[in-house]
Write a structure and sequence with these properties.
The chain is of the alpha+beta class. It has three domains: 108 residues, no CATH class; 310 residues, no CATH class; 121 residues, no CATH class. The protein contains 20 helices and 18 strands. A four-stranded mixed sheet has the order 4-3-6-7, with helices on one face. It is globular. The chain starts with 17 loop residues before the first helix and ends with a strand.
Length: 579
Amino acid sequence: MGDKPKIHSKMFFNEWKRGKSDGFTRWLAYLFAYKSGPWRNELIQLLSANDLLALCNFSIDYSMVTDISTLSNARQCIALFTKNSDISIDVDRESVAWEAFAKSEIQCRSVNSRFEEYSSGGNTGYEQQLLFIRSKIAEILGKAPELSELSLGFGPGASSTVKKNTSARYKLNAEPVCSREAGESINELWPTIPHYAYLHKGKYRVGMGHLSFVPKSAKTDRSIMIEPLLNTFVQKGIGSYMKRRLLLAGCNLYDQSINKSLALKGSKDGSLATIDLSSASDSIASLVVLSVLPVDWMNLLCNWRTGLIVYDKKRLKIELEKFSSMGNGFTFELESLIFYVLALCVVIESGSAPAVFSVYGDDIIVPTECYSPLKNLLEFFGFSLNMEKSFNTGKFRESCGGDYYEGTDIRPFYVKGRWTDARVVGLLNFHLETGLLDASERDYIISHISPDHILYGPAGYGDGHIHGDHPRKPPANFNLSGYFFNSFSKVPKKNTSSLLFVGDDLYPLYNVMHSSPDPVAELFAPTGPGRAWVLCSPKRRRELLMNRAPLGSLEADPYVVRGDKGSKKSRIYVLNRGI
């Protein structure tokens, strides 16, 4: 027999083999199912039959709740499957997502036709509400900014021409491409970025958006729009400007905890309803936007949206009925603005005092008595409630990742892909406070982690280590009060290429322009339990501290690495609070 293969720290985020991952999932599912009280028999029966589709579709009847522990165990059992894109349930997720996209386009076309009739003098039944909505939106947005007033820049995502290496360095070097709508505004854009215009000799190409799909759950993918490069550059600035205007009006898109706290309150006393919309971003019909926005803002947004897209898989060119979708840099702020003003309209009409409500994207919270009238108003504008995630009765409420039953947090740990050592550590840390796992169960779970990847450290610094009281104290002669601990963090693959791009001449200037974060966002930046220095390379330390991200949590799913990324063990020194 040969020597055992050496375990490297870079494997902390690597996916397990399918057999090991599936077996671990089933063991966990049975563990939580056996403790799920009134749902125990049904869940065990589905697990025994390996009916994963039924598990994904399993709906909790909250009238059956006997105690919080059994409810939490049942929800955790289901959460191992519902968002897990790695399980096989014989569903073509992209086809399901494409059908949903096509359905939303048909819905938007119907809404556009209806609003076209209204613009010709038809009776809406909501004339007074429309007047209020237009007036309030104009008040919130104010005068439309010039491009020179916007904080223009590239986001982290792909564009229609830069899909793999998506950093600003590659985007600055890429050929400038814009949508046909933006073509007439390029002459206004170039003077605001003269160095960029000079670099590319003022040349650009007109292109289309690309429809793409990314994993969302076990049953479906999520549709996103990959926008042309110059559109993303301007859309990001428009979105940031709208976000600040919304904050001044009382809609805080910098802080999800507001919605969570209100959902908690609603679960306790039933005074507030939580609303979630189905395919909200894909349901913003073009004529809805044109009907409620001031002319100057309408022109600005119309100039930088992308109305013509291509779906490469089916070789289709599509003229969009929706105004914008996910992938557009101002869609989130635009939908939040519309939903906020619709909710405000209903709250004022109902006479609710004080007017307690909140909007964060398509997560809406209003007084319970406003639920039905807001539902009707949303449907008039072409939006549909997700009835599985909207609650106005009973003791359960959910919003912005906060799930509460009678004032208790019952949010489960959602598994979104194949198991990694990092994901297992995340599960352990998540349930450290829930009490769903006893000591023997935690020990058994830890036994599945590679020995070289078992580290302990304090909570508040990500899931690169198991949370526990095992910090290594500093030397006795160290003159500052604190302690060391080790944790895994993600590191990108080093760029060993010596090739220089034309855009590299502009990259330092671009970094200077964007070195200062949004001053408003800084007010809501998360803070840890103390101050920490990451003892790794200076470049990596700057990345971690500037991003203010928890260690090991620099991506949307912090428990898996895709592509050419790896991990390293970092040594961290933490000052005691107050030093």
